[in-house]
Amino acid sequence: MSPIMIREEIYHMTAKEMARLKVAERLIEGEMTIKGAAEVLGLSTRQVIRIKERVRKYGLKAVIHGNRARKPKNAVDDKIKDLIVELKREKYAGTNFSHFTELLQEKESVVLSRPTVHRILRNAGIVSPKKKKKVKAHHYRARKKCPGMLVQLDASPYRWLGDENFFLHGAIDDASGNVLGLYLCKEECLEGYFEVVRQMIKGSGIPVSTYQDRHTIFFSPKGKLSIEDQLEGKLEPYTQFSRAMGELGVTMIPAGSPQAKGRIERLWGTLQDRLIQEFILNGIKDIESANKFMASYIKKFNKRFSVVPKGEPVFRKLDKGINLDYILCRKISRKLDGGSAFSYKGKYFKLVSYGKVATTIPRSKISVLTSSRIGIKASYSGKVYSVVRLENRPRVSGNIQVKTKIKKLPKKPAANHPWRSSYPYGFAYDRSDPDIAKGLFGSTLAWNPDNQ
Question: How many CA atoms within 13 Å lie on the side-chain side of 428?
């Protein structure tokens, strides 16, 4: 007779399941009542009766959940888990967990929730490259109610395209958190901010006010005029940027600290974590390609991070008759000579209208307009003219009368002038002549030619 091998099964039970098993066994032995068991387990009498019958029929397996040690139907397949871990280690190594989850859906067609991806990566021993900072208690300024009420401007130096530092200029709406413009330059410059403002105006419109630091691009270091200068009628000191904002009717508000414009400061942290990886994945290695790519990336970014504002937008649209290129440029005052010519940076130019020299008034003031978009132009009498460079300095026409100051010599008194007399006041006293007019101090005075 061969021995019978009895398979031993090991069951892992929780404390809750152990309590139900012991109570059910005591019920079967008649040591407890159903009502008492219900009070001990915190269940209804009907549930206690069902537990008792299952334990009597199936033994201790009756109190163990039926899905124990079974794989859930909605569990992620092991192959997909391996794929996620492989992609994170090789293709998307620099991305944080949240950005990686978005890229899985966008580029790999793997749709999983953020917590699921986090759990898979953590179980594989992968740590997010984004550092977790300890949150400090801070009173945040409430957002503006309407988009366009306040737009924050700033530039961030960072290694956006490799080891070299570049400056990313940006603008963000305070109410909605929408990025209104991004432009990359080698340095923080006026052209970078002008391009950001151009994107903002063409996309959303002209805001009510802007909020930026006290950089000399925005505000003149001279500060406000003194009372003496104001009485003399001098203009307020301005920069090219503040002059352009004044022409657009935008109020500029200076920020006292980086924390005051925290909205755009936090934007830089998010972009430094995400935008660099987007550049790498799309093979972008130069500034021109980066600026073209960011035009489409802004829409994707705003869709992910913008919030719903409380009020309606207050952006203004640019009037159709205004050329934005003639506002977002440098403007410098010059004077014309007799041949509609002027000097600029050691070179000479003349105003041209329809291929001919423009008719102007000599010595008139003009504004020279310069930018990378329009080159060099000149504004005279409310009209913008093209210019042509001259090889040599223009000669002054002979018909032009140049006023010269003639130095006047002092006039010499005549020999018989009263000042030459030796008498007091140049007169002699003669009280006997009735025709002599009364002189000073009530006395009669007459001029005596013999006393010259």
Answer: 12
CA angle 163, 304, 182 (to 5 degrees): 45
Angle in degrees, 0-180, between the axes of helices 114-123 and 97-107, rounded to the nearest 10: 110
**Torsion of the alpha carbons at 282, 286, 289 and 292, rounded to the nearest 10:** 110
Q: Which letter, b or e, does each residue of 7-25 get, where b requires 16 or more Cβ atoms within 10 Å of its Cβ?
A: eeeeeeeeeebeebbebbe
Residues contacting residue 273 through CB under 8 Å, at least 6 positions apart: 96, 99, 130
- The neighbouring-strand residues paired with 210 are 151, 252
CB atoms within 10 A of CB 407: 4
Query: What letter does residue 428 receive in the DSSP assignment?
Result: B
Whole-number Å distance between alpha carbons of 46 and 214? 75
Token readout for 285 is 């290695």
Task: For residue 348, give every residue at least 6 positions away whose Cβ sits within 8 Å of its Cβ, in sequence order, or none.
Answer: 341, 342, 389, 390, 392, 393, 394
What are the pLDDT tens digits along the chain (452 aa)?
Answer: 444 444 556 667 788 888 888 888 888 888 888 888 888 888 898 988 888 888 888 877 777 776 666 767 778 888 888 899 899 888 898 888 899 899 988 888 888 898 999 889 988 888 887 766 666 666 778 899 999 999 999 999 999 998 889 999 999 999 999 999 999 999 999 999 999 999 999 999 999 999 999 999 999 887 665 666 555 555 567 899 999 999 999 999 999 888 889 899 999 999 999 999 999 999 999 999 999 999 899 999 999 999 999 999 999 999 988 999 999 999 999 999 877 899 999 899 999 988 888 888 888 999 999 999 999 999 999 899 999 999 888 776 555 555 566 777 787 878 787 777 665 544 444 445 445 444 444 444 444 545 44
Q: Taking a C-beta distance cutoff of 8 angstroms, is the pair 389, 342 a contact?
A: no
H/E element holding 369? Answer: strand 365-371
| Count of CA atoms in the C-beta half-sphere (13 A) of 157 | 6
pTM of the model: 0.69
Question: Which strand ranges, in their side-by-side order, compose the sheet holding 166-173?
Answer: 179-185, 166-173, 151-158, 209-212, 251-254
Among 301, 313, 269, 303, which Cα is nearest to 144's?
A: 313
User: Tokens 């423009």 appear where?
Assistant: 358
CA dist., res. 306 & res. 242, Å (int)? 28
